[in-house]
């Protein structure tokens, strides 16, 4: 996230950033204040990193929303996290877990089917 923290900077699988972050198109990173949402898709190789280390780094950097996507058979499960304003450490609160379908309005309005993702 922060350029000075390149050795620890996570690289989300999907990132939603504010449009003003694109003023410098030569960038290979975005400052945390420009990131609205960071999404990680968990694989066997990234399980510990995506479930433990990267959420900690995103929260510490100030990224308000973090989603973790995992496979459950042929379906996807989305764990939707938001920073807890009451947390003294600035951690994410308990996730909203989406099975079968994802319906959310923050940080963007989105609805999608999470079933049979392998058959598509």
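^ Assign residues to that structure.
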């Amino acid at each position: 996230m922060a350029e000075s923290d390149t050795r620890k900077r996570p690289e989300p699988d999907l990132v939603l950033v504010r449009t003003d972050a694109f003023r410098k198109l030569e960038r290979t990173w975005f400052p945390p204040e420009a990131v609205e949402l960071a999404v990680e898709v968990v694989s066997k190789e990234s399980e510990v990193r995506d479930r433990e280390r990267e959420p900690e780094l995103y929260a510490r950097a100030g990224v308000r929303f973090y989603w973790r996507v995992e496979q459950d058979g042929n379906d996807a499960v989305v764990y939707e996290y938001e920073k807890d304003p009451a947390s003294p450490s600035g951690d994410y609160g308990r996730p909203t877990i989406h099975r079968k379908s994802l319906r959310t309005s923050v940080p963007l309005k989105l609805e999608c089917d999470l079933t049979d993702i392998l058959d598509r």
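The radius of gyration is 15 Å.
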